[in-house]
Write a structure and sequence with these properties.
The complex is a heterodimer of chains A (449) and B (164). By secondary structure, chain A is α/β, with parallel strands linked by helices. Chain A has three domains: 211 residues, Rossmann fold (3-Layer(aba) Sandwich); 100 residues, Ubiquitin-like (UB roll) (Roll), CATH 3.10.20; 95 residues, Up-down Bundle (de novo design (two linked rop proteins)). Chain A has 18 helices and eleven strands. Chain A starts with 17 loop residues before the first helix and ends in a 23-residue tail after the last helix. Chain B has two domains: 63 residues, Arc Repressor Mutant, subunit A (Orthogonal Bundle); 84 residues, Glutaredoxin (3-Layer(aba) Sandwich), CATH 3.40.30.10. Chain B is 45% helix and 12% strand. In chain B, strands 2-3-1-4-5 form a five-stranded mixed sheet, covered by helices on one side. The radius of gyration of chain B is 18 Å and the shape is elongated. Classes of the chains: A alpha/beta (449), B alpha+beta (164). Bound molecules: flavin mononucleotide, iron/sulfur cluster and FE2/S2 (inorganic) cluster. Iron/sulfur cluster binds next to helix 16 and helix 18 of chain A. Flavin mononucleotide binds next to helix 4, strand 4 and helix 18 of chain A.
Chain lengths: 449, 164
C-alpha cells in the first residue's frame, strides 16, 4: 500500500466533523505553523518540492515567494475549487470527505502569506459541498482556529466560500479573480501577474485545493521529509481521479513511483478494463493533455516503462508523451471511437471559450463543426488537414491557455490516430454505426502479438 | 413586482460583509443564485433589475454577468430540470443512451420543456462526476451511475412530488 498523506483518514467515521478530525490529529499543523515565522513556512514549502496540483505543476514555494508585500495593502489567498476539467473530480472528493484538511491547509497558508480574508472559489454545481465547507469553517471558528486572534497569536483570518455559476474558464486564475469580483469570467492579460495585482488589484496567490491541503503534511513532517516521498521533481503524493472504461473508477492517492501499467491493471487502483476488453488509449491528465495510444502510454517511445509522475508522463514531449495535468485519468477501451471522443472535447471547449480572442472563439467552433462532419460520415480528406491547421493557429495565439487546451487534444488525436480519421472519410456509411477498433494501438504488454 | 423578503435582505447584508468596503459587486453571483433558487428557477429582467438596485449596480452590469454563466436561466424552465452531462468520460459510459431515453420518455428535445411545465431537459458539459458516469444534475443534487431504470424512477419521483 502506498503511503497516504491526504486521504489516509478520509474514511474514518465522522471525520467531516471537527471533534473527530481533531481527535485524529487534525489542526496540529496550525498549532505548529503559528509559532513559526511566515517566511519559514514558505521555506518549508519550497523544500518540499510541492508543485501546483491544479494542472500546470508550478513549484508552489516559489510561487509564494513571488507575492508582493507593499506596505498597507491587503494580500489575499484564493483557493481554486472550480474543478471543471473533464476527467477531474479529485478536489470534490477531498472537500466532500475530509473538508477540515482543506480548512487546516488554508489557515496555515493564509498565515504564511498574510491573508486575513481567504476565499474558496468553488464551481457552482458543487452546491452541496458549499454546505459541507461552511459547516467545517464554522466549527473551526468555534474552536478558535479561525476568526480573531487565532490561538492567541494575534493573527486574524476569515475564510469565505464563493460559488461560481457554471464556467470552466473561471478555473483560470485571472478569470477566477474577475468572477470573484462579480464580473464575467474573462481572463486578464498577464503581466501583471496576480502575485502583484490580483483580487481587487491587491497581491494575490491562487492555489488549487489539493495543493493547499498538501501544506498540512508538509508542515507536520517538514519539507525535507515530504520531498523524500516520490521521485525526482515529483515529490509527495498525488490525487488521481480515474474514469472511463475501467473496473474501479474513483479517486486514488498515489505516490508517484508506480507505473502506468500498475495503476490501470492492479486491483488496488483501476482494476483493469471491464468485460475483458483491451486498452486502446488514455488521456492521463485531464481533457487538455494529449491522448496517447496504449503502446505509448505504458512504455515511452524508447521502450522504457512509463510511470505516474510529472517527468515520465511528459517523456517524449508532445510527439510521443503527454502530461500529468490535473490528474484526470480517462481510459478508452477497444470499442471507443477516438473521433467521437475528441468531438465531445471540442464541443466542451467551444462551449467554455470566453470569446475574448478570435482564434479561440472562432477556432473552437470550427474544430467542433469539422469533427462533427467527420464523425457523421460527411468528412473529406482535406478536413483532417484543415483541422490540424486550425489547432495550430489557435495554439500560442490567445490571452489565456484555454486556447492551447482546446488545440492539444485535437492535435494529439490526429497525430496518433490519423488512420482512424481517414477510415471515417473512406467508410462514410459504416463509421456511424461501427468502430474502427484497435488497429496497432493495442496495449503491447497485455495483448499477445 | 416581487420583492426580496426581509430574511433574504438580511442574507444579502451578510453576503456583502464578506468583502471589503465598497466591493459589494462581488456579491452579485451569490445573489443571482439566491434569486434564481427562490423565483421559479430563472431570472427575469425584473429580478435582475432588483438585484442591480440592491447592490447599487447598473442593470447592464447584472445582465452581462447573468448571460455569461451557464447556470443562470434567462427563460422560464420546468419545475424539474434534468441536466445531463454529455462530455467525453460520460459519453464513454453511455450518456447518449440516457439522453435518448429521457427524450423518449418525456417526448421533448434538448432545451425543451414539457407542455405541462413539469420537466426541462438540458445537456451540460462535465460536472466533475466523471467516475460516477453517466450522470445528471437534478436540483442541487447529482444523480450518478444512471441507467434507464434509474431515470424512470427519478421521473416517477418527480411526478409524485408534484401531486403530494
Ligand atoms: C482554462 C483553465 C482552467 C483551469 N481550471 C482550473 C481548475 O479548475 N482548478 C485549478 O486548481 N486550476 C485550474 N487552472 C489552473 C489555474 O489557472 C492556476 O494555475 C491554478 O489554480 C494554480 O494553482 P496551483 O499552482 O496550486 O496548481 C485552470 C487553468 C486554465 C487555463
Ligand atoms: S483563449 Fe479563449 S478562453 Fe482564454 S481568454 Fe482567449 S477566448 Fe477567452
Ligand atoms: S464527463 Fe460527465 S461528469 Fe465529467
Amino acid at each position: 500500500m502506498a503511503k497516504k498523506l491526504l486521504l489516509e483518514k478520509a474514511h474514518v467515521e465522522g471525520i467531516r466533523y471537527f471533534d473527530v478530525y481533531r481527535r485524529e490529529g487534525g489542526y496540529a499543523s496550525v498549532e505548529k505553523a503559528l509559532k513559526m515565522e511566515p517566511a519559514a513556512i514558505v521555506e518549508e514549502v519550497k523544500k518540499s518540492g510541492l508543485r501546483g496540483r491544479g494542472g500546470a505543476g508550478f513549484p508552489s514555494g516559489m510561487k509564494w515567494s513571488f507575492l508582493a508585500k507593499p506596505e498597507g495593502v491587503p494580500r489575499y489567498l484564493v483557493c481554486n475549487a472550480d474543478e471543471s476539467e473533464p476527467g477531474t473530480f479529485k478536489d470534490r472528493y477531498l472537500m466532500e470527505f475530509i473538508p477540515h484538511l482543506l480548512i487546516e491547509g488554508l489557515i496555515v497558508s493564509s498565515f504564511a502569506l498574510g491573508s486575513n480574508r481567504t476565499y474558496i472559489y468553488i464551481r457552482g454545481e458543487y452546491a452541496w459541498i458549499v454546505a459541507i465547507l461552511e459547516q467545517a469553517i464554522a466549527e473551526a471558528k468555534q474552536n478558535g482556529f479561525l476568526g480573531k486572534n487565532i490561538l492567541g497569536t494575534g493573527f486574524d483570518c476569515e475564510i469565505y466560500v464563493q460559488r461560481g455559476a457554471g464556467a470552466y474558464i473561471c478555473g483560470e486564475e485571472t478569470a477566477l479573480i474577475e468572477s470573484l469580483e462579480g464580473k464575467r469570467g474573462n481572463p486578464r492579460i498577464k503581466p501583471p501577474f496576480p502575485a502583484v495585482k490580483g483580487l481587487w488589484d491587491c497581491p494575490t496567490v491562487v492555489n488549487n485545493v489539493e495543493t493547499l491541503a498538501a501544506v498540512v503534511p508538509i508542515i507536520n513532517m517538514g519539507g525535507e521529509e515530504y520531498a523524500k516521498i516520490g521521485v525526482g521533481r515529483s515529490t509527495g503524493t498525488k490525487l488521481i481521479s480515474a474514469c472511463g472504461n475501467i473496473n474501479k473508477p474513483g479517486v486514488y492517492e498515489i505516490d508517484m513511483t508506480i507505473s502506468v501499467e500498475e495503476f490501470i491493471y492492479s486491483d488496488e487502483y483501476c482494476g483493469g478494463i471491464p468485460n475483458g476488453k483491451r486498452l486502446k488509449a488514455c488521456i492521463p491528465g485531464g481533457s487538455s493533455v494529449p491522448i496517447l495510444p496504449a503502446n505509448l502510454l505504458l512504455t515511452t517511445a524508447k521502450g522504457e516503462t512509463r510511470y505516474m509522475n510529472y517527468e515520465s508522463l511528459a517523456d517524449g514531449g508532445f510527439t510521443t508523451g503527454s502530461m500529468m495535468g490535473s490528474g484526470g485519468f480517462i481510459v478508452l477501451d477497444e470499442d471507443q471511437c477516438v473521433v467521437k471522443h475528441t468531438l465531445t472535447l471540442a464541443r466542451f471547449y467551444r462551449h467554455e471559450s470566453c470569446g475574448q480572442c478570435s482564434p479561440c472563439r472562432e477556432g473552437t467552433g470550427w474544430m467542433e463543426k469539422i469533427l462533427m462532419k467527420l464523425e457523421n460520415g460527411k468528412g473529406e480528406m482535406s478536413d483532417i488537414d484543415l483541422l490540424w491547421d486550425i489547432q495550430r493557429k489557435i495554439e500560442g495565439n490567445t490571452i489565456c491557455p484555454l486556447g492551447d487546451a482546446a488545440a492539444w487534444p485535437v492535435a494529439a488525436a490526429i497525430r496518433h490516430f490519423r488512420d482512424e480519421f481517414e477510415w471515417h472519410v473512406n467508410n462514410p456509411e459504416v463509421c456511424t454505426t461501427q468502430n474502427y477498433g484497435l488497429a496497432h494501438y493495442a496495449d503491447p504488454i497485455h495483448v499477445p502479438a | 413586482m416581487i420583492k426580496f423578503s426581509d430574511e433574504q435582505l438580511k442574507q444579502v447584508q451578510e453576503l456583502v460583509a464578506r468583502y471589503p468596503e465598497g466591493k459589494q459587486k462581488s456579491a452579485l453571483i451569490p445573489l443571482l443564485h439566491m434569486a434564481q433558487d427562490t423565483r421559479g428557477g430563472w431570472l427575469s429582467a425584473e429580478t435582475m433589475d432588483e438585484v442591480a438596485s440592491l447592490l447599487q449596480l447598473e442593470p447592464i452590469e447584472v445582465y452581462e454577468v447573468a448571460t455569461f454563466y451557464s447556470m443562470f436561466n434567462l427563460q422560464p424552465v420546468g419545475k424539474h430540470v434534468f441536466e445531463v452531462c454529455q462530455t467525453g468520460p460520460c459519453m464513454l459510459n453511455g450518456s447518449d443512451r440516457i439522453i435518448a431515453h429521457i427524450k423518449k420518455r418525456l417526448g421533448i428535445g434538448v432545451s425543451e420543456t414539457t407542455p405541462d411545465g413539469l420537466f426541462t431537459l438540458k445537456t451540460v458539459e462535465c460536472l466533475g462526476a466523471c467516475g460516477y458516469a453517466p450522470m445528471m444534475q437534478y436540483g442541487i443534487t447529482y444523480r450518478e451511475h444512471l441507467t434507464e431504470e434509474k431515470v424512470d424512477a427519478i421521473i416517477e419521483e418527480c411526478k409524485r412530488d408534484n401531486h403530494g
